Amino acid sequence: MLSGNKVGLRARHEDDIPILRAELYDDVVNGSRAEAGPWRPITPGSKDPRLVVDDTNQGSVPFSVVELEGGTLVGTANLWGIDNHNRSAHIGLGLLPSSRGKGYGTDVVATLCHYGFVVRGLQRLQIETLSDNAAMLRSAERNGFVREGVLRSSAWVLGEFLDEVLLGLLVKDWKPDAQG
After folding, report:
1. What is the DSSP letter of 6?
2. I need a labelling partner for 71 at 20 to 30 A (CA). Which of 18, 91, 97, 99 fits?
3. In this structure, are residues 85 and 25 in contact, taking their beta carbons and an 8 Å threshold?
4. Max intra-chain CA distance, the chain
5. What CA–CA distance (Å, rounded) separates 88 from 119?
6. Phi, psi (5° rounding) for residue 72?
7. What is the Cα–Cα distance from 67 to 124, expressed in whole angstroms?
8. Would you state the pLDDT for residue 71?
9. SS3 label, residue 62
10. How far apart are CA 75 and CA 72, in angstroms?
């Protein structure tokens, strides 16, 4: 397990999947804002590709996020789009509604940065988030990510086009204790 200050990132357990599905992906609003494609229901008991781990996929490393004290599941995190040639990847996370507003997001981003830069030897990490996702923007910027641009009207979400903000962090600019 990778440990941050408040949370740990561990392998996805089979019993995490029903909780993550029910609290993050079965909700139309959360699911629509988190995914690049349109929301659709997944049949209970089926293999949900958003949550089932494919250990052969070298381009993505999914984690379950747990509280360090007690081990309670609080969300999901992912290093995805891993490009070993250019030494870059993207960061994604989703916190359960009851776990938001507690500083977990900032800690998850910091822990993913440690994983990407120290463990994987990457040069660049990137985050794309909806422009109205103040919590993610704050978590990224507290960890040293800089806004590199706005993708205007690039995300179709529940009947409207929304802007996405592109943020990046280079290993040379990373300060492991920057979150604050």
Report:
1. S
2. 91
3. no
4. 45
5. 13
6. -65, 135
7. 27
8. 95
9. strand
10. 9
